[in-house]
Amino acid sequence: MNRRLITSLAAPALATCLPAQELGDTWGTEHAEAAYYRVVELPLPRELCLEAGSFCVLPDGRLAVGTRRGEILLITGAFEEIPAPTVQRFATGLDEVLGLGYRDGAFYVTQQTELTRITDRDGDGRADRFENLSDVWGFANYHEFAWGSPVQPDGSVTVVLGLSESYYYKADYRGWAFRITADGRSIPIASGIRSAGGVAPNEHGVMFYAESQGPWNGSCSLKHLRPGGFMGHPVCFPAYDLPLGKELGPTPAVPKSQSRLVTECERIPELVPYAVVFPYRKMGQSITTFRVDDTEGRFGPFAGQLFLGDYSLSCVMRATTELVDGVWQGACYPFREGLGNGILACEFSPKGYLITGGTNRGWPVRGNRSYVLERLEWTGATPFEIERISARPDGFLVTFTLPVDPASAGAPEHYRLLSYTHVFQQGYGSPEVDRTTPRVTAAAVAADGRSVHLVVDGLVPGHVHEFDFTGVTDRGGAPLVHTKAYYTLNRIPK
Fold it and tell me: Which CATH entry fits the domain spanning 386-489: 2.60.40.3450, 1.10.10.10, 2.60.40.1220, 3.90.190.20?
């Protein structure tokens, strides 16, 4: 077999492990979702054993894939209407590529131990120059994942570093985030990371990262990588005594376990609240990479929103964020389940497809395919969905993808709300605590039927506000595809 060019063949399912029994149906809407977003498998050769860890789309339209097995693969034909891809190995011998970008003829590759710039100087289609841009962080355990952002306009890459074994600090700068410049300077951004997933700009161009449930994290969340910020896990504090750590300033106060995040944020100015909480199992169990839908409507009615993968539940979700009183917050929404394996990577293509890939090796995962590359395609039919939720001083503005039925959407009793938070603690995760039941007292439907202003009695700052829109229909009487949404209310707008 030509090792540089792997002929594309249909690949049968290679199921080597079954999902855990607890990983059941997420939202129970897979068949309804399929009418609007189909899952298309890209046929790949059996011998490829593809475990995608990162993607980027090249200027010539090819899809570049960084893999857990340490390769960079270049795929031609991934975005054709009927995909018949061919695969070329560009580079091998790397170490779990969980960040991949491309700029000015060079790949920027985040692997476990360094950020590497890789080029093909002689133009033969294979990497022949490997430049170490940064390896300031240490490495002591396989479970010390390093995730890298896409290359930014200034040529920099943001790298977030998980803890040792996801719990401990056994090597330098574990639990920290750095911005690595194009000339190799390593600038510390924040500390307190536990077990990161993806890192990328949000829909407003501000750098965020995905955090997993665990110690000091009651549920998965999206967090703002605020310069100088502390993300909540104090085990990484020894790095403040290292040369680069001192650039971030003094060590923050140690959080009080068994507290609440909103309370500790008042006591510790460096502490950054979760921007969007993904309630455990109701939404993701281990959220990973996220990307902004920049397809200008070719992927449907959610242009400009965040789309996130989840490893455990093999699903894709949506999120929207907004800045209120200087603090980021926002909502998450179900989108599409039923994907083939645990999602580690996703990327939009200019033609309007969302490419997804990952693995089922390492932890329980619902999708039982070992090696699969899939893309989500919009069928052209607009689903009746919650398009976004935004905070208002007296409640929320809910926007829908299609006009609502004024009678059903104008009835306050058709909206059910639950609020809760999590214990901010050193122990693993948290149940939902401090529950309240805010009440919708008025629902004003806009003239075009696309939005409803909800006046809510009992808003709780610092709480997730869980919405149930079961009673709302569109003008034809059809229900929503997904009736649940979750808004993290850090601040009530003034």
Answer: 2.60.40.1220
